[in-house]
Design a protein that fits this description.
The chain is an alpha/beta fold. The protein has twelve helices and six strands. The protein starts with a strand and ends with a helix. It holds the Pfam family Response_reg.
Amino acid sequence: MIRVLLADDEAMIRAGVRAILAADPEIEVVAEAGDGREAIDLTLSHRPDVVLLDIRMPRLDGLAAVAELRRAAPETGVLMLTTFGEDEYIARALGEGASGFLLKAGDPRELLAGIHAVAEGAAYLSPKVAHRVITELTGGRMSRTAAAREQIAALTPRERDVLALVGAGLSNAQIARRLHLVEGTVKAHVSAILTRLDARNRVQAAILAHEAGLLDQER
């Protein structure tokens, strides 16, 4: 069962999202929060697998809340849910350590897919958000690629293999099957990769994999 905490300051939005999640028998909403500070407190008391976090909330907005959650509850995945698709929100949310980003206007199936992906340790971006990120990565690609390749040079060949599959959005279990490893070994590789690359989470590591061209090599 995937335990989810839902944080949004609008009761009607929470009710709508809760109704969508109720359609999946593998998801359970364990708590709801109306502001960022309450979301942090409830996360610490309920220890959910995933926090669905709105960006604009009173007391403490989602961007500040995700930064605090990454420090206080690093084992909990944070999936940002918002009506705002501007690049600055996407970049800041991912930069603060969010595991994924969804738009409220997206397909409800994206919400369920995102929760499952983040709960399994993978990253998830809705298609519209992914397009924005890829477009941003495409600009100035040559300089980014050179810098990214220099950064990943410190990785072992096996770590680069794992990083490429993290970039493709695979979970630890999926990577283990692909590379014929046990899941614990993959988890150790991912942890080492994040440390070596000074990346806060899998999303940042995945972006670096794209910039370095690792996914192109996989094709």
